[in-house]
Amino acid sequence: TCTWFCCWAGGQFWTIAISKGCHAAVVKSLMRAPIDKFYDKTPVGRIMNRMSNDMMHVDTKVFLRICSTIGMAWSVSVPIIYVHLMMPLWFTVLAVPYYWLMISLLRLYWKTTVPLQYLAQVCTSSVDGELAEVQSSNTSVRAYNKASHRLRVFQMALCDMVSAKFLGETVLKRWLNNRIFVLGGIFVTCLALVIVWVPGATLDVGTANLCLVLVFSIIVSIESMVHSGASAQYQIIAMNRLHEYTALPQESPEELTTDGPYLSHMVHIPRAELLVLERQDVLGRVQIAREGSPFDVLLQQIPYRPAFKAPCGKTLSLIAPECE
Q1: What would the pLDDT profile of 1-48 be if each residue is shown by its tens digit?
Q2: Which residues make Cβ contacts (< 8 Å) with residue 46, sequence separation at least 6?
Q3: Cα separation of 240 and 226, whole Å?
Q4: Which of 121, 138, 192, 250 could form a disulfide with 32 if both were Cys (CB 3.0 to 4.6 A apart)?
Q5: Mutual angle of helices 62-86 and 2-31, in 10-degree steps
Q6: What domain count does the chain have?
């Protein structure tokens, strides 16, 4: 019970930490992403899909899929190691080409399914974008009589998404399952022939039966193992898609250390501290000057703005002598 509780607490802490760090990094990057280089070129559906679907997978399924993948690796590796420990060394050497072919199949499946997973997510983003566009511009679509056109566009996007998901989640999995079944059948057949035909290949009949049962159990559970591995692969892809948003180009800070000489400063001065001033209208602009000195201008109106600035050569001490 204590071990189970420690594992559960550690898993929850790890999941919350990775979700918090991932969410904070992505949101920080998106808030500082440039308008012209990112938001003007990226569809809304793609951002929605990554921030909803991919983030949900990171929050709820990463820890479970990693644990299931580790358990699957142990359930396959331990029986295989036991079989090779019980069999002669030359049987292990002869099985090397078999394992090389198995690894080649897995690599080919991985290289093929990763682009298809990305394609499925891109198609899902297109569907989300169409839904968001219709929800935000429903009135315009009906006013311009474009409902049938938008429906056809949505159906095409939905068809692309279903095709990509069917190809990546059904066809490729069945392709891999069939080939692993064939290779597993060849392996267990060779193992049975060696046990029967080669004298002294195993220690006793019980060991031989156990080796065959272990290999058969692996073959029977191949489909569930492939499904678990594909699910774990999708979690890796989701985390990689979110990581891509943390590497977006960022806008420059609002204030740099070199902006000091160019910053505008706001000063509040009580009216009692000012000199006796008078207002003048010159060329449609308001000027403030000393009373009796119309050419001694202290403040000038900024063109087309209800604000004033000091003329060149004037300082705050000339406008408010008693202000420190």
Answers
A1: 788 888 888 888 888 888 888 888 888 888 888 888 888 887 777 787
A2: 122, 125, 128, 129
A3: 21
A4: 250
A5: 130
A6: 2
Does residue 80 belong to any structural domain of this protein? Answer: yes
| Beta-carbon contacts of residue 131 (< 8 Å; ≥ 6 apart) | 45, 154
Asked whether residue 42 falls in the same domain as residue 174, the answer is: yes
291 in the same domain as 178: no
Q: What is the pTM of this model?
A: 0.63
Q: Is residue 258 part of a domain?
A: no
